[in-house]
Amino acid sequence: QVQLVESGGGLVQPGDSLRLSCVAPGFAITYYTIGWFRQAPGKEREGVSIISGSRTVYADSVKGRFTISRDNAKNTVYLQMSSLKAEDTAVYYCALADPSIAPARAMVRGGVAMHYWGKGTPVTVSS
Fold it and tell me: 39 pairs with which residues across the strands?
């Protein structure tokens, strides 16, 4: 069983930046597909960004504003979020899948292909 622990969420104002972290204690994420999803109140979960090896994908709604990265030595994946908007308000979840799951496939249908999930960290963007 893989444990994923998210952190870094909070309340920010529109235009602010925030960095989310997801650590997998004792599990080497190096070769796995891993990334971020979010679920806003009353909406379905959606893919935000996935990284697998050197490949990354982003939802159209966050392209140019969010950046995903990983530190394999720390078993951690990050989501740097900039120019935050009210519509970015959601609970953000980290998820991991087998390396055979390509980033584009991992993004679809709310992450149905992902194998392990964290409990989420809430992000609220409000003035």
Answer: 91
